[in-house]
Design brief:
Elements lengths: L6 H9 L10 E2 L5 E2 L8 E2 L2 H15 L4 H4 L5 H13 L6 E4 L2 H15 L5 E5 L4 H14 L2 E5 L4 H4 L4 E7 L11 H10 L3 E5 L18 E4 L13 E5 L43 H15 L3 H22 L6 E2 L11 E5 L3 H10 L2 E2 L1 E3 L3 E5 L7 H17 L15
Parallel strand pairs: 2-13, 5-6, 5-7, 7-8, 8-9
Antiparallel strand pairs: 1-3, 4-10, 9-10, 11-12, 12-15, 14-15
The site of pyridoxal-5'-phosphate (PLP) has 13 residues, from α5 and α6.
C-alpha cells in the first residue's frame, strides 16, 4: 500500500530533491506559488547584477567601444552556441535573434525557397496562433499554400506536395508533446523539411534536435529559459542546409562584410546570414544569464523532477478536487507531456483569477482552460500541495464565481 500524499510527504520529497539548491538561484517572491514559468520565467538572482554591469560599465563607460571590447557583436552567436549544447545541436547551428514569430517567418521563407517545386506548408489546427499567421504569410509570399488539419490527420495529409511540416513540439494549451523523431521521420519520408517550434519544450524536456531529425527550429527565451520579458528568441538550422539558406529579410549584419557598406547583399557564411539587424544587447545579457544557469544542471534530472511534479499535481487535483468541475486536458502519459498541466473548468477564468489573488499564479487560455506550468528549477513539491490546497479553498468557497471575473483582462 502506498503512503497517502500529504504536505509532510511533499516536504520529504523536497528534502531529497537534487535540484533543491537551484531554487536559491532565483528570486521567488514570498507568499507566491509561481505556476506560470511556462509564460514568463522567474528572475535569476544573478541577472540584475549582470544587467547593471552591462549598462553602467559596458554602455556607460565603454560606449561604442563595447561592440568590440565587451563582445556585443558576437553575442547572438555566442549565446546561440550555448543554446546549441542545450538543445542537442552543433556549434554554429543556433543563433539568437528577434522574436519567435519573426524567426519563424524567416525560416519558413528560407525553407520554401529550398523546397522549390513543392507547394504546401502542412501544420495542425492545434498550433499556436502566431505560427498559423506567420506560416500563412510566408506561404503567401512564397507562392505556396497552407494545409491546416486536425492533429489526427497529419499523417494522411503528408503527401509529396508538402515542402514543410511545421509543428509546435509541446502544445501551449494542453501540454501534449509530439514524438519529434517519429514526426520528423514522417516528414522526411515524403521529402518535406521538419520545422519545430520549441517555445514550450526548451527547458521543459530534453531536446536532441539533430538526433531527432529537426531540420530547423525556433524557440523563445522568456519562458523556461528565464531570459526576461521580451527576451530574444533563437533559431536553429542543421548544418547541411546552411549553404542553401536565403534570408527573406537580409540586413547589414547578415552580410559577409557589414562594414564594407556594399550596395548589394552578399550573405555571410553559415547561420550568420540569418541575422538581420543589430543585436538586442541588454536583452541578450539577461538571456545569457538565464541560459548559463541551465548549463549547470543535468536536464535528465530536471525532466525527472518535472514529471514528478506534474504527476503529483494531477493526482492531487483528481483526489482532492473531485466533483468540483475540473477535467484533465493534458496527456496522462508523461512521455507525451511537457512541463505543464491544464484542466478545463466551466468557470476557469474565475478560478485562475481568484487563485492569483491568493498568490497562486497560473494562467487561463480561452475558452475554458486553467493552465499551470511546473518550472522544475525553482518549484517544490510543497508548492504543488499548497496550490491544490488553494484550489480546494477557492472553489469550495465559490471565490471563482465573483462578479469581478465577468470581464476578462487584456492579458489572461
Ligand atoms: C508556441 C509558441 N510559439 C510562438 C510564440 C510567440 O513567441 P514570440 O512572442 O517570441 O513571437 C509563443 C508565445 O507564447 C508560443 O507559445
Amino acid at each position: 500500500m502506498t503512503a497517502p500524499i500529504n504536505r509532510a510527504a511533499c516536504a520529504a520529497r523536497d528534502a531529497a530533491d537534487a535540484l533543491a539548491a537551484v531554487r536559491d538561484r532565483f528570486v521567488v517572491p514570498d507568499g507566491v506559488v509561481y505556476l506560470d514559468g511556462n509564460s514568463l520565467g522567474a528572475l535569476p538572482q544573478q541577472t540584475p547584477g549582470r544587467i547593471a554591469a552591462a549598462v553602467e560599465q559596458e554602455w556607460g563607460q565603454g560606449l561604442v567601444r563595447s561592440w568590440l571590447d565587451a563582445h556585443w557583436m558576437e553575442a547572438p552567436a555566442r549565446v546561440g552556441d550555448k543554446l546549441a549544447r542545450f538543445v542537442g545541436a552543433g556549434e554554429g547551428e543556433v543563433v539568437v535573434a528577434e522574436s519567435t514569430s519573426v524567426c519563424l517567418f524567416k525560416l519558413l521563407c528560407a525553407a520554401l525557397t529550398m523546397q522549390a517545386g513543392r507547394s504546401v506548408v502542412l501544420t495542425e489546427e492545434e498550433n499556436f496562433h502566431t505560427d498559423l499567421y506567420v506560416a500563412a504569410a510566408a506561404a503567401r509570399i512564397s507562392g505556396a499554400t497552407m494545409r491546416v488539419v486536425p492533429r489526427a490527420r497529419l499523417h494522411d495529409e503528408l503527401t509529396d506536395e508538402v515542402a514543410v511540416l511545421l509543428l509546435t513540439h509541446v502544445d501551449y494549451r494542453t501540454g501534449f508533446m509530439h514524438d519529434m523523431p517519429a514526426m520528423s521521420d514522417a516528414a522526411h519520408a515524403v521529402g518535406a523539411l521538419a520545422v519545430w517550434d520549441l517555445c514550450h519544450s526548451v527547458g521543459a524536456a530534453p531536446l536532441h534536435l539533430n538526433a531527432d531529425g529537426a531540420d530547423m527550429a525556433v524557440g523563445c527565451g522568456y519562458k523556461y529559459l528565464n531570459g526576461g520579458p521580451g527576451a530574444p528568441a533563437f533559431l536553429h538550422v542543421r548544418t547541411g542546409l546552411h549553404d542553401a539558406l536565403r534570408n527573406p529579410v537580409p540586413g547589414w549584419l547578415g552580410h559577409a562584410e557589414p562594414f564594407a557598406f556594399e550596395q548589394t547583399f552578399r550573405p555571410a557564411s553559415g547561420l550568420r546570414s540569418m541575422v538581420t539587424g543589430s543585436p538586442h544587447v541588454l536583452q541578450l545579457v539577461a538571456l545569457e544569464s538565464g541560459v548559463d544557469l541551465w548549463l549547470d544542471v543535468d536536464m535528465a534530472v530536471v525532466r525527472e523532477k518535472s514529471v514528478a511534479l506534474t504527476e503529483l499535481f494531477i493526482a492531487l487535483i483528481e483526489e482532492r478536487c473531485a466533483g468540483m468541475g475540473f477535467s484533465l486536458l493534458t496527456p496522462r502519459d508523461p512521455a507525451r507531456r511537457g512541463s505543464q498541466v491544464s484542466f478545463r473548468h466551466a468557470d476557469g477564468y474565475g478560478v485562475v483569477r481568484a487563485l492569483i489573488e491568493r498568490g497562486v499564479i497560473g494562467d487561463f487560455r480561452h475558452p475554458d482552460t486553467c493552465r499551470f506550468g511546473f518550472a522544475a528549477l525553482y518549484l517544490r513539491h510543497v508548492d504543488v500541495w499548497d496550490a491544490v490546497q488553494a484550489i480546494v479553498e477557492v472553489v469550495g468557497a465559490g471565490a471563482h464565481l465573483d462578479k469581478r471575473w465577468a470581464e476578462r483582462a487584456a492579458v489572461t
